[in-house]
UniProtKB/TrEMBL annotation:
Keyword Zinc: no
Protein purpose: Accepts the ubiquitin-like protein NEDD8/RUB1 from the ECR1-AXR1 E1 complex and catalyzes its covalent attachment to other proteins.
Active site annotation, chain numbering: C152
Gene3D superfamilies membership: Ubiquitin Conjugating Enzyme
Protein name listed in UniProt: UBC core domain-containing protein
Residue ranges annotated for the UBC core domain, each copy included: 62-214
Listed pathway(s): Protein modification; protein neddylation
InterPro entries in the cross-refs: Ub_conjugating_enzyme, UBC, UBQ-conjugating_AS, UBQ-conjugating_enzyme/RWD
Taxonomic superkingdom: Eukaryota
SUPFAM superfamilies xrefs: UBC-like
């Protein structure tokens, strides 16, 4: 099933994850003292750096550290690539381009934008299809992608586990193009055609990818 995500988009790639809570045998007063000492030491360190003329170092959140690890361990197929439009200093916003080499969408180029929450992998990730050259969201004839570019991918919903990573998500997107699924659609019309008449579905995909109408809907050229 696909639901509305925290951004209000039905079916958008959104991660909802939960961390376990562990008990720790430390009294509340001890914790308070430890926190105060830590803050004092941190303030002293910042003052020392400023007095030496060094710019303060921006701390990375746990999500940024985890994402940095995920990206450093990426093992993508040749059909997928990742880029950082804001530079490598902003890992929380990036683009993934997929060029399927098999199936209905062979020869197409599909770019997705990713917005990663600072509490990743325990909180939201938003992904949406985009035309990379024109910087606007495109339409694609696909049973699991709606006309606003939102994506339905189970691995980003009920099947997600924090032990999974960005590499897993990208592979999931790739398989949407090699193995589209009519059983959990965002575009019900395309799903019905895929289920009932695969030959017509293939013809509709080729027409849409070339930049043309399927029914009353115009689809953006992506080949």
């Amino acid at each position: 099933m696909c639901y509305r995500d925290s951004w209000g988009n039905r079916g958008a790639c959104s991660i909802q994850m939960y961390s376990k809570h562990y008990m720790t045998l430390v009294s509340y007063s001890s914790v308070g003292i430890m926190i105060k000492l830590f803050k004092v030491k941190e303030k002293q360190r910042e003052l020392a750096e400023n007095s030496n003329g060094k710019p303060p170092v921006k701390k990375q959140s746990a999500g940024e550290l985890r994402l940095h690890k995920d990206i450093s361990e990426l093992n993508l197929p040749k059909t997928c690539s990742i880029s950082f439009p804001n530079g490598k200093d902003d890992l929380m916003n990036f683009e993934v381009t997929i060029r399927p080499d098999d199936g209905y969408y062979l020869g197409g180029t599909f770019t997705f934008t990713f917005q990663i929450s600072s509490i990743y992998p325990h909180g939201g990730t938003k992904s949406q299809m985009q035309n990379k050259s024109e910087k606007h969201f495109i339409t694609v004839y696909h049973p699991n992608i709606d006309l606003d570019g939102n994506v339905c991918l189970n691995i980003l919903r009920e099947d997600w586990k924090p032990v999974l990573n960005i590499n897993t998500i990208i592979y999931g997107l790739y398989h949407l193009f090699t193995e589209p699924n009519h059983e959990d659609p965002l575009n019900r019309e395309a799903a019905a055609v895929l289920r009932d008449n695969p030959k017509m579905f293939e013809s509709n995909v080729r027409r849409a990818m070339a930049g043309g109408y399927v029914g009353q809907t115009f689809f953006t050229r992506c080949i």
